């Protein structure tokens, strides 16, 4: 088993794409069930939510208020899991409920440092 | 109560008080001496009360005798020191009158500090429970051996080694500092929970329900609640959890001591007072910032006291298991979570998740699959029940699975 990080991206900027409180509650439920599925397989390692505020610094030292304002996808949060392979990890990530939202995405990367 | 009966009862409650106070006064490394004095005191009591009858104030009598024995011990020690090392005793200040503080406050404090001293991370969890039963609950070695399905020799060795280890670590009878208390409390709570679980669903066949062990665990937990420094949310959560489980004791086992499944229990025998009390502690636990496994298990246990199936009950149970598995994975929690998932999302969805669990070594796993496939694919259900039987130890679990298989085969 290796560790993988699943980065979840969604549009945090476009005002009319933000979920209503009921939608949010429903998404949270789906999200918790998805994480619960992973935890039941003893593959859950950790996870953090991220604030919607932040900063972006670019190579020309320009600092803007984040999240990443030029791309409509900002990192919403991430979890780390154990999986037998990248394919296994991708299969798990593919079930993330944010993918039900158009334009959202998840990225899976193997963790290589200790 | 006649004299022979009251002594075991008093032994339980007063033994730990005397041992704790004496150990605090003399130092934890003198624990065995403190235990000897306590035991001798009870021996004297048995002899004396048998002849002269019970004194008016039995506890007071015990304390007086224990104190006198302790004084004698101290004086012998001082005498020995003077003979062996006269220089030291001459330069020492005038010998103080050896005394032991038996005020209620000191008795209370000493016991609490003794609990922390015993539930120390340097000794194994079994040793912690064993020492707790011996010193804090006044259990005899035979009783402890019986509780652990072990022999007197093993238990004696275990306790002896544990005390040695604690001496090596120079463990003191004192409250841990504010920074350490959180961590140490975790160990204490784990010990109490281990003790409760041993009574609730003993590892050994036929899984006897040992209510006394559960009650001792609850008593120790209550003790923590009575002290300001240890009256923390997670302690209240653990207390709530134990109350909820204990509420079903009368329904949980029949007269022969055989376990009765939850679904088959007579809910009229469920103790609603314990459920209320659990609810009270659960509310007390709902403070502070940390969600501990005890909070989650208490939440699950609460819903299990509500006999009626409702979608909300199972949604909540599923939610709590989702969180519990993230904090602290265990195969049993994973199986129970999957059962709750079936109640919320239906059996087919749960079957998909069940087959990812990777628990092919557990007979419970096949029993769960049998349950999930029943009504969905009865052939698969029977197949899984048969696999479960092949792996089950004899006894209650086996009989339960056999019953389910027979029902399916008959239909």
Task: List the defining traits of the structure above.
heterodimer; A: 114 residues; alpha+beta; four-stranded antiparallel sheet; two-stranded antiparallel ribbon; 25% helix; 34% strand; globular; B: 411 residues; mainly alpha; Serine Threonine Protein Phosphatase 5, Tetratricopeptide repeat; 3 domains; 20 helices; 71% helix; elongated
Secondary structure topology:
The complex is a heterodimer of chains A (114) and B (411).
Chain A: E1 2-10, H1 21-40, E2 44-49, E3 54-57, E4 63-66, E5 74-83, H2 86-93, E6 105-110
Antiparallel strand pairs in A: 1-5, 1-6, 2-5, 3-4
Chain B: H1 3-26, H2 31-52, H3 58-84, H4 86-91, H5 104-118, H6 125-136, H7 141-147, H8 152-168, H9 178-200, H10 211-226, H11 233-246, H12 249-252, H13 272-285, H14 293-304, H15 311-327, H16 331-345, H17 347-354, H18 363-373, H19 378-391, H20 396-410
Helix pairs in contact in B: 1-2, 1-3, 1-5, 2-3, 5-6, 6-8, 6-9, 7-8, 9-10, 9-11, 10-11, 11-13, 11-14, 13-14, 14-15, 15-16, 16-17, 16-18, 17-18, 18-19, 19-20
């Amino acid at each position: 088993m290796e560790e993988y990080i699943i980065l979840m991206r969604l549009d945090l900027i476009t005002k009319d794409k933000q979920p209503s409180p009921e939608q949010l509650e429903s998404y949270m439920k789906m999200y918790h069930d998805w994480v619960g599925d992973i935890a039941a397989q003893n593959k859950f390692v950790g996870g953090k939510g991220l604030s919607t505020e932040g900063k972006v610094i670019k190579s020309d030292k320009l600092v803007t208020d984040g999240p990443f304002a030029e791309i409509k996808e900002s990192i919403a949060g991430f979890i780390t899991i154990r999986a037998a392979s990248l394919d296994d990890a991708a299969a798990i990530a593919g079930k993330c409920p944010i993918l039900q939202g158009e334009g959202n995405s998840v990225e899976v990367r193997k963790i290589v440092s200790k | 109560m006649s004299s022979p009966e009251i002594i075991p009862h008093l032994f339980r409650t007063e033994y730990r008080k005397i041992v704790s106070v004496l150990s605090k006064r003399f130092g934890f490394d003198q624990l065995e001496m403190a235990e000897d004095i306590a035991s001798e005191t009870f021996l004297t009591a048995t002899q004396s009360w048998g002849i002269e009858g019970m004194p008016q104030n039995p506890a007071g009598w015990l304390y007086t005798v224990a104190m006198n024995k302790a004084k004698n011990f101290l004086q012998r020690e001082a005498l020995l020191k003077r003979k062996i090392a006269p220089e030291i005793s001459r330069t020492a200040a005038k010998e103080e009158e050896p005394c032991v503080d038996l005020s209620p406050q000191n008795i209370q404090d000493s016991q609490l500090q003794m609990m922390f001293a015993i539930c120390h991370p340097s000794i194994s969890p079994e040793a912690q429970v064993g020492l707790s039963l011996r010193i804090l609950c006044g259990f005899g070695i035979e009783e402890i051996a019986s509780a652990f399905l072990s022999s007197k020799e093993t238990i004696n060795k275990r306790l002896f080694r544990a005390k040695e280890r604690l001496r090596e670590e120079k463990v003191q009878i004192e409250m841990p500092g504010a920074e350490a208390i959180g961590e140490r409390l975790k160990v204490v709570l784990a010990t109490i929970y281990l003790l409760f679980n041993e009574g609730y669903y003993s590892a050994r066949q036929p899984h006897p329900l040992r209510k006394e062990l559960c009650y001792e665990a609850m008593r120790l937990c209550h003790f923590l609640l009575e002290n300001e420094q240890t009256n923390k949310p997670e302690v209240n959560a653990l207390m709530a959890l134990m109350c909820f489980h204990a509420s079903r004791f009368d329904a949980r086992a029949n007269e022969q001591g055989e376990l009765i499944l939850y679904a088959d229990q007579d809910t009229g025998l469920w103790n609603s007072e314990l459920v209320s009390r659990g609810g009270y502690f659960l509310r007390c636990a709902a403070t502070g910032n940390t969600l501990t496994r005890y909070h989650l298990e208490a939440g699950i246990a609460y819903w299990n006291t509500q006999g009626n199936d409702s979608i909300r009950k199972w949604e909540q149970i599923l939610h709590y298991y989702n969180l519990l598995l993230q904090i602290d994975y265990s195969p049993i929690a994973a199986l129970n979570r999957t059962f709750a998932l079936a109640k919320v999302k239906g059996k087919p969805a749960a079957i998909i998740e069940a087959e990812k669990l990777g628990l092919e070594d557990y007979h419970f796993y096949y029993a769960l699959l049998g349950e999930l496939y029943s009504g969905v694919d009865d052939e698969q259900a029977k197949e899984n029940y048969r696999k479960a039987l092949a792996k089950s130890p004899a006894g209650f679990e086996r009989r339960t699975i056999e019953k389910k298989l027979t029902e399916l085969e008959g239909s």
